[in-house]
Amino acid sequence: MSVFPVDAIRKAFLALPESIDSKGVPIDKQYFYVPASHTKALHPDNVLVEGIRGAGKSEWWLELQDPERRRLVADLSPRAELANIECSAGFGLARSDNYPDKRILSSLLRNTDAQTIWLTVVAWNILLEDGFGLAKDSLWPEKISHFQSHYEELDRRLVQIDKHLDQHGKKHIVLFDALDRTADDWKSLKDLLKGLLQVALEFRSFKAIRLKIFIRPDMLEDPYVYSFPDGSKIISNKVSLEWNKLELFNLLWQYLGNAPQGSKEFRDVCNRMFKQKWKRHDLGIWMIPEEMRRLESVQQTVFHELVGKWMGTDAKRGNTYTWLPNHLGDGYGQVSPRSFLAALREAASEEVIKDQKFPLHYQAINKGVQKASQIRVEELKEDYRWIEVLIGTLKGMNVPCDFEAIVDRWKQDSIKEKLQSIDGEGVRLPPSRLEQGYEGIQKDLIVLGIFQPMLDGRINMPDVYRVGYGLRRRGGVMPVK
After folding, report:
1. Containing domain of residue 349, as a range?
2. With a threshold of 0.90, does the pTM exceed it?
3. Does residue 477 fall inside a structural domain?
4. Helices 337-349 and 362-383 sit at what angle, rounded to 10 degrees?
């Protein structure tokens, strides 16, 4: 039997987010966790931050705009150096007067180069209170024109503000996110991204004014976006938002230790049985004990008491502590914290079976992976409509398989014609290598971590995608029907 009370701890698991998308609202501060591996990415001097869908790009874009959250990060992770920082938004999903939306950007690009557009956006964010020279309700074509005709004057003001901020030990960061939503065609998007990277490089000569660009890895695949003098300096210094196994479980502890129900029982058992004493922060947040936060051996011991040691009746089915993140990783082994939490919450929502010894049952964790895969597939639809067209037609296939077998399915379903019609709709971006044929499409899917090439040349698909799309693998988690 588990040392944890089953009913109480299941209630704590149900505090894990049911809807993983923040919807523009910061997470409750008691669940706010700063992975040690993200400290470098948050530092003001690190401009380019890449991360897969669900790694936390939009969450950090949102959190950094909140002064209270910045103070909390500065307290919890001093090496991020976010004390005395101001932040504003240069682009994101939320509509704002601070930046033009996709339609306005499309209109501006007809007469203005991307670099000038983004320079104007940054100047508007920095100089808005100090005197840009236009009313706050001015239209973006007016702002662009004013910036161009008063460039020397506005540039001088930027230099003065930079000097003033630096003298007072402060910095101002302009944040950029959701750049895939800046355009509906690859040429415009790549032009905008290249222009933004050029502006980011330009501001590296400033001491206190910085850009921070959150971006998906696939958007940096084309060398065109950094094909300008010293563009390699931006790319070579990019930082990744990743969640290793240790950090994923720390996020789980943060939720379980601060849940509205069951958290006291969780903390008490950690203290009594594992000598892991929780301490309360001044803000009322229970902080993860140090050994429980940094030692996998301690984490594994605790997790085994929550779900059992094996994904079955013996070791043949795998260790639960490693099995769950392994089955939620993409083609590069990267795990989204959204998927991880969603799987565990779904497992807690399953009915308790007879004589269940632990708060969560291994069979329920299998169901949790199915749920997490469904969520992941739905997320992909938002960013890449074409993936549903490509992978949907493979439902029922067994992987690993030869790529030729996949191409046969695609040909039978007239995939190329369907992809061309998506391109014609102009709503979301088509595959970036569509003109290269099936091999180009395969490359796009590999870059996104959906296809996983094996040493023998066959194509595999990670469970986090395979299950949701309805493909099969011998001995693997059953696909969603």
Report:
1. 6-13+244-378
2. yes
3. no
4. 140
